């Protein structure tokens, strides 16, 4: 059986009802630590091609996976507070598993705007596996969260869920978006770390619990070999955004843009990649 990508319809956390009336040029803000949220933007374009978008990447804080929960919560809440005040978005999407599992509740308490987050796609993976063994690749911060424990208990009882924190995959995805080659050793290490765990040889479904990881899914599929399905949440997130903004009008008054917290030049290859996702302007925040 060849590898297969399975889209996760249950990827998003519940979000409050949208504001009934919004300005047509009010943007949707997609927030991530880096380029991973582009996987969500790609799916969002299919559903809402006319929606104005601001893509916000906290590259100054990258990587999130090695930070403490307190650091991530404070950083995400602070940045999104500033962004909502400045850009008056109709909706904010935290297109980052790590930030969502840690900071989503806090952000919803302090911001008066609909918030959509994403969580590891354990539920659909548990429904798909035939061997009963599921691999989960995420950041170190994500895989240790009690929220993931609860998802496993609720949806994967009787299954074997093998977790691995793979920060190198974030770096590999970022490098790929800059036009640089993906280090095969990084991919091989992530696969080996799952396969070497007891029962790992029977993994037939892998949860990509970081929005960066679908960017290197082809490389992961080749390393895992045939018979492995991949589950990720980008389509489900896009569907949730579309539901919460149903009936709203859209009007672009300027090109969609990507904003970075990190200083320094964005490479020509990265600009080309952003342009392919419809982000014609690049700036700092």
Could you explain the architecture of this structure?
With 285 residues, the protein is an alpha/beta fold. It has two domains: 157 residues, Rossmann fold, CATH 3.40.50.1860; 112 residues, Rossmann fold, CATH 3.40.50.1860. It is 40% helix and 17% strand. The protein has eleven helices and eleven strands. The strands form two sheets. Strands 5-4-2-3-10-11 form a six-stranded parallel beta sheet, sandwiched between helices. Helix 1 packs across helix 10 and helix 8 crosses helix 9.
CATH class of the largest domain: Alpha Beta
Q: What class do helices, strands and sheet pairing give?
A: alpha/beta
Oligomer: single chain
Unreliable segments (pLDDT under 50, ≥5 consecutive)? Answer: 1-7, 9-13, 15-19
Estimate what percentage of residues fall within beta strands. 15-25%
Distance from N terminus to C terminus (CA atoms, Å) equals: 46 Å
Biggest beta sheet summary:
6 strands, parallel
User: How would you spell out the order of helices and strands?
Assistant: EEHEHEHEHEHHEHHEHEHEHE
User: How many domains, as an integer?
Assistant: 2
CATH topology category name of the largest domain: Rossmann fold
Write the CATH architecture name of the largest domain.
Answer: 3-Layer(aba) Sandwich
- Placed side by side, the strands forming the largest sheet appear as 5-4-2-3-10-11
């Amino acid at each position: 059986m060849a590898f297969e990508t399975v889209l996760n319809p249950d990827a998003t956390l519940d979000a409050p009802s949208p504001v009934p009336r919004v300005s047509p040029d009010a943007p949707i803000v997609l927030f991530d630590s880096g380029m991973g949220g582009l996987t969500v933007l790609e799916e969002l374009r299919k559903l809402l091609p006319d929606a104005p978008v601001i893509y916000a990447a906290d590259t100054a804080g990258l990587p999130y996976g090695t930070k403490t929960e307190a650091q991530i919560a404070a950083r995400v809440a602070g940045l999104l507070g500033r962004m909502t005040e400045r850009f008056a978005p109709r909706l904010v999407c935290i297109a980052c598993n790590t930030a969502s599992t840690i900071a989503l509740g806090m952000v919803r308490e302090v911001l008066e705007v609909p918030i959509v987050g994403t969580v590891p796609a354990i539920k659909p993976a548990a429904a798909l596996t035939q061997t009963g063994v599921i691999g989960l690749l995420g950041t170190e911060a994500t895989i240790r969260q009690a929220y993931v424990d609860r998802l496993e208990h609720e949806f994967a009882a009787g299954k074997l869920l093998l977790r691995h924190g793979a920060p190198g995959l974030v770096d590999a995805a970022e490098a790929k978006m800059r036009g640089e080659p993906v280090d095969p050793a990084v991919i091989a290490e992530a696969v080996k770390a799952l396969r070497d765990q007891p029962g790992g040889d029977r993994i037939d479904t892998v949860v990509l619990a970081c929005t960066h990881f679908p960017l290197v899914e082809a490389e992961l599929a080749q390393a895992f070999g045939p018979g492995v399905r991949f589950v990720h949440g980008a389509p489900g997130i896009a569907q949730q955004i579309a539901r919460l903004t149903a009936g709203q009008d859209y009007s672009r008054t300027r090109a969609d843009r990507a904003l970075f917290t990190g200083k320094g030049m964005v490479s020509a290859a990265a600009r080309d990649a952003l342009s392919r996702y419809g982000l014609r302007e690049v700036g700092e925040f």
